[in-house]
């Protein structure tokens, strides 16, 4: 079992990132360890430059994201935690795969279409080639499990197509260069919505800070955001089906369930018939009890530059070592002379 996943160090990590991604990394890290596999989690800083960005901000966010991941329970002794820019093999393999990826394949990517909108001519080449870097990210390590959200499934299918064409064109059947990676979508993958609008997902890039709970918010701020979260005037139903037409209520109950490790029906068995005046304070308390210790560890770590640098240096050294055989095999398959 080789787990590989990346997270972009842009903006502040929030509850949705924790419940939808980071918490699963921690579980997978333990599963990989139990099976003598590997778990590689990286900061996708090379991906971040595909959009307009502020260099000082990217630098600070990258270090903050490392502190967050460790605070959430990713253990640098069990997982390989690194940033892309420290492992040049990612950029190298991306270039090698550029010869295999087809323009037509990239043109069909919905993320490209969404992000470019009508102004395709004005986008960076990096935004267009982004999925090829993503393919390199996972193919470098012969990943078997790639935890991704629904939105990234198409990119992973592209990575499989690239791997398959490369193997076909440049490798013999009995010695393929790349393993075809599978998406790994955990059963209880949570999708957390904005606190201000139950139809939009909670996002780092949403301008209103009141729309999300940041992992770095203090207890008062968390409680305030829950208190001000949009709701409706009804009491909570006694079963999940009663939430179907109530997106904001469904989101808050879903958050409670995910944090408490309960099903929605279990939560409603306790709170059904009660209004938000009772439910919101309980949710705020639960949030603070789960996220408070994470925040405390984050605050301890975030300015310890020496510790953060050491974590990244160690992870990068391991990632360079793990990636070398595959990178060498790709160079060699293409007939490139390296001396
Ligand atoms: P941005 O708005 O910049 O795209 P984001 O909040 O969507 O930021 P990403 O860095 O794109 O965060 O995603 C990091 C990880 O968190 C991904 O695995 C993604 O699927 C997951 N994720 C992001 N938002 C949510 C959410 N609201 N609920 C559950 N998972 C989420
Ligand atoms: Mg996103």
UniProtKB/TrEMBL annotation:
BP GO annotations: tryptophanyl-tRNA aminoacylation
Catalytic activity: tRNA(Trp) + L-tryptophan + ATP = L-tryptophyl-tRNA(Trp) + AMP + diphosphate + H(+)
UniProt keyword annotations, A-Z: Aminoacyl-tRNA synthetase, ATP-binding, Cytoplasm, Ligase, Nucleotide-binding, Protein biosynthesis
Binding site for L-tryptophan: 137
Enzyme Commission number, as recorded: 6.1.1.2
Matches recorded under CDD domains: TrpRS_core
One GO CC term on file: cytosol
Motif ('KMSKS' region): 201-205
Primary localisation category: cytoplasm
Similarity comment: family membership: Belongs to the class-I aminoacyl-tRNA synthetase family.
Function: Catalyzes the attachment of tryptophan to tRNA(Trp).
Subunit record text: Homodimer.
Name of the molecule in the record: Tryptophan--tRNA ligase
Origin species: Aurantiacibacter luteus
């Amino acid at each position: 079992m080789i787990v590989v996943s990346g997270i972009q160090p842009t903006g502040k990590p929030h509850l949705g990132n924790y419940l939808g991604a980071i918490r699963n990394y921690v579980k997978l890290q333990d599963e990989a360890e139990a099976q003598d596999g590997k778990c590689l989690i990286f900061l996708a800083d090379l991906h971040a430059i595909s959009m307009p960005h502020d260099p000082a901000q990217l630098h600070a966010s990258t270090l903050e994201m490392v502190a967050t991941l460790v605070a959430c329970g990713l253990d640098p002794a069990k997982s390989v935690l690194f940033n892309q820019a420290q492992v040049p093999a990612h950029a190298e393999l991306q270039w090698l795969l550029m010869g295999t990826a087809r323009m037509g394949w990239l043109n069909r990517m919905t993320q490209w279409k969404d992000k470019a909108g009508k102004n395709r001519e004005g986008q960076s080449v990096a935004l267009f080639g982004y999925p090829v870097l993503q393919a390199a990210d996972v193919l470098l390590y012969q990943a078997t499990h790639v935890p991704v959200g629904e939105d990234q499934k198409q990119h992973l299918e592209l990575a499989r197509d690239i791997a398959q064409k490369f193997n076909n064109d440049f490798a013999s059947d009995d010695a393929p260069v790349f393993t075809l990676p599978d998406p790994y979508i955990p059963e209880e993958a949570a999708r957390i919505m904005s606190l201000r609008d139950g139809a939009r997902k909670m996002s780092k890039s949403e301008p209103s800070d009141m729309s999300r709970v940041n992992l770095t918010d203090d207890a008062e701020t968390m409680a305030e955001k829950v208190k001000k979260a949009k709701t409706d005037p009804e009491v909570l139903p006694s079963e999940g089906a009663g939430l179907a037409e109530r997106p904001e209520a469904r989101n808050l109950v879903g958050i409670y369930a995910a944090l408490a490790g309960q099903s929605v029906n279990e939560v409603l068995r306790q709170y059904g018939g009660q209004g938000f005046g009772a439910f919101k304070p309980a949710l705020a308390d639960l949030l603070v009890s789960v996220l408070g210790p994470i925040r405390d560890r984050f605050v301890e770590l975030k300015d310890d530059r020496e510790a953060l640098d050491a974590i990244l240096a160690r992870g990068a050294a391991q990632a360079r070592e793990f990636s070398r055989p595959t990178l060498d095999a790709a160079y060699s398959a293409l007939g490139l002379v390296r001396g």
